[in-house]
């Protein structure tokens, strides 16, 4: 099977505090402190004062019906590929997938077991946490990982065609038969000062595509045309964002999307992200067919995916700082 890893973390602020109170060992424990009316200053994250306030645009965010993308009807499939190309990948870098084939019961079970993990006593959690980002995941999550990978490979076949390539070209070039998955479970507890804290700072993902599900508490924001947009997921949908490897492979036609997680002062939010990349040993570069046309040159330096992943994971999340390192500027 493909290499897979897991990462479970508890978030409430954009950066880890340099000096938390001596009796506080994690954000969850801090959130459960009696009479917590404000967060310590070292958890505060102050945004740019000129930044546009986030708005709701759930009616504009593209929706891809996976059953149409895999349909035997050529007209339906052609329309789905066009939607995947223009609206989903070019205009937004983000979309919702419906009729994806992953049972709702499985998605809910994943969220429930994640919630159970985060509610374990602190001394019991290390038993379940991987020591390194590349450690293999446990059998409990295997079905969800496999189902997610099926969805991703179907989407990438459509994306390959939307780039003007053969349906199987991306699969072969990136060795998707041995694709790497990284399972990330996030816990965002109630925050008394949501206006000065972030659950996750703005960043792009190291992936080709990242699949996200969440409990019935919103908090994901994506950057679109210079403003932050609140994501309101459709029932039983999967949220998908394009990552750095897709931007590199498409030679910049499809941009990885900046996104962040915000917190609230009422409810705990849990999200599960399944990051899907090429095989770890694949050297990712712009598709040769996309840089062989007259006047077109590669805009990114080739880099082994494993090296890219480990470099990004070993540094603080900071916009597209990792992607900028492999960009070729005029």
TrEMBL record:
Domain Fe2OG dioxygenase intervals: 178-278
Entry keywords, A to Z: Iron, Metal-binding, Oxidoreductase
Annotated InterPro entries: DIOX_N, IPNS-like_FE2OG_OXY, IPNS-like_sf, Oxoglu/Fe-dep_dioxygenase_dom, Plant_2OG-oxidoreductases
Gene3D superfamilies in alphabetical order: B-lactam Antibiotic, Isopenicillin N Synthase, Chain
Origin: domain of life: Eukaryota
Organism of derivation: Rehmannia glutinosa
Record PROSITE patterns: FE2OG_OXY
UniProt family annotation: Belongs to the iron/ascorbate-dependent oxidoreductase family.
Region annotated Disordered, chain positions: 1-22
UniProt cross-references to PANTHER family, sorted A to Z: OXOGLUTARATE/IRON-DEPENDENT DIOXYGENASE
Tagged with keyword ATP-binding: no
Protein name, as recorded: Fe2OG dioxygenase domain-containing protein
Alphabetized Pfam families for the sequence: 2OG-FeII_Oxy, DIOX_N
